[in-house]
Amino acid sequence: MDWQAVWLSVRLSACTTLVLVLLGLPLAYWLANSRWRGKFFVEAVVALPIVLPPTVLGFYLLVAMGPLSPLGRLYTSVFGHGLPFTFQGLLLASVIYSLPFAVQPFAAALATVDRRLLEASWCLRVSRLATFFRVALPLAWPGVLSGMVLSFAHTMGEFGVVLMIGGNIGGVTRTVSISIYDQVQTLNYAAANWTSLLLLAFSFSVLVLTYGLQRRLAFPWPTR
User: Fold this and answer.
1) How far apart are CA 30 and CA 45, in angstroms?
2) Which residues contact 130 (CB under 8 A, 6 or more apart)?
3) Backbone angles phi and psi of 159, in degrees to 5
4) How many angstroms separate the Cα of 55 from the Cα of each of 61, 73, 101, 178?
5) Is 223 within the bounds of a domain?
């Protein structure tokens, strides 16, 4: 078992989930409440990583982070090294790749909040930010937690984007999925089997938790 790769994947998934909560919640709240006619375009952009092949997404992210790109030149001038084949590059790619797995559950949960409750809070002169934290977020919390769990799990299983952006550098960019691939390539099937079983158990647990949270969202009040 390559515990170094497992720990790196856990750290990457945790950082990705944190960033997605900070960036995805405001975006999801806007998507759930905006009446702008062009909102469907933003929704399509957010959902694009779901249908786009990971290698295609990874290639364009690699180009966008490259030393000749504006982002690449800016990052190199500030930090002294490029983004590709670094943990920071993996984090940026993971945030973009897992964006729909966080934003869509967030938006679906926030859309179920009764707008009359929000308007009542605004009528009591509570700010929109305070209303979000005191009214909308507590009511949508099961869906928000579901999105966090899904984005964490999705990042744990990344392969194509990780391989394109990070390569295979031990302790830096070798995640658990890359480790399994290496073990199979070297015919170390026993190690690959144990690592795969670990991911299988983790993935099943995530699905059980996600469906349980969705059931809690669908039936927020106790039933007899």
Assistant:
1) 14
2) 121
3) -135, -60
4) 10, 23, 18, 14
5) no
Tens of pLDDT, residues 51-60 = 888 889 989 9
The predicted-structure confidence for 103-122, as pLDDT tens digits, reads as follows: 999 998 898 888 888 888 88
Domain count, the chain: 1
Judged by phi (left if over 0) then psi (alpha if -120 to 50, else beta), residue 168 lies in beta
Could you list the residue range(s) of the whole structural domain that residue 167 is in? 3-33+42-218
Query: Which residue in this structure is represented by tokens 């709240």?
Result: 29
Asked if residue 150 is part of any domain, the answer here is yes
- Taking the C-alpha atoms of residue 12 and residue 111, their distance in angstroms, rounded to an integer, is 29
Q: How far is CA 38 from the centre of its chain?
A: 24
Whether 54 maps to a domain, the answer reads yes
CATH code assigned at 143: 1.10.3720.10
Structure tokens of 166? 């990070």
